[in-house]
Amino acid sequence: MEQLEERIAHLTRTVEDLSDVVARQAGEIATLERRVRLLMERAAEAEAATGGTVPLADQRPPHW
Fold first, then answer.
1. Is residue 36 part of a domain?
2. How far is CA 49 from CA 19, 27, 34, 54, 58, in A?
3. How many domains is the chain partitioned into structurally?
4. pLDDT by 10s per residue, the chain, length 64
5. In-domain check, residue 41
6. Which of 22, 34, 40, 58 has its CA 20 to 30 Å from the CA of residue 50?
7. pTM of the predicted model, to two decimals?
């Protein structure tokens, strides 16, 4: 019986640790999603400002 209680205690601790990791990762993912959305908006604005042409930085050099 004592072994079972010990195993349950270890498993409970592991589940709590994993729950903390998942919660932290969920926050990080939300932050990254916001950043990607902002970057996509900036890229769309930049594309609209250039009239839909390919930005100079994304064009192939003439020797290709």
1. yes
2. 45, 33, 23, 11, 15
3. 1
4. 999 999 999 999 999 999 999 999 999 999 999 999 999 999 888 888 877 666 666 777 777 6
5. yes
6. 34
7. 0.65
